[in-house]
Specification:
This protein has helices at about 40-55, 70-80, 100-110; strands at about 1-5, 30-35, 60-65, 85, 90-95. By secondary structure, the protein is α/β, with parallel strands linked by helices. The protein has a five-stranded mixed sheet, covered by helices on one side.
């Protein structure tokens, strides 16, 4: 699992950036997860623990933590909803969510 603290210039990653499926189906498509939160948010810390637990068995996960505090648009969208976990296909999980729900969405995206 890769963990990035995404800066303002890199916060928007399009679905088109996902690699194609391998022709022999030996490799699974990379799945991009983004957690919107902010420093000092205990629910965001709990969500990060659940994401870590749910993604541990998978090698094809890219994870980005996006702190909403410095972005007015993100603050307007998520300030009362964080933590929010989004998948590259635009599916979102709003708190409260479980490791099982995360795993289910990962499995359905493979």
């Amino acid at each position: 699992m890769e963990l990035f603290k995404v800066n303002e210039n890199l916060k928007f990653i399009t679905q088109g950036n996902l690699p194609p499926l391998h022709p022999n189906d030996e490799y699974k498509r990379m799945i991009q997860l983004k957690l919107y939160g902010t420093e000092g948010c205990h629910l965001c810390d709990k969500a990060l623990e659940l994401i870590t637990e749910a993604t541990l068995p998978y090698a094809n996960i890219t994870f980005h933590y996006i702190d909403i505090i410095d972005d007015e648009e993100l603050m307007n969208a998520y300030s009362l909803k964080i933590p929010v976990l989004t998948f590259a296909d635009k599916t979102s999980l709003y708190w409260p969510f479980s490791a099982n729900e995360i795993t289910h969405l990962i499995e359905s995206a493979q």
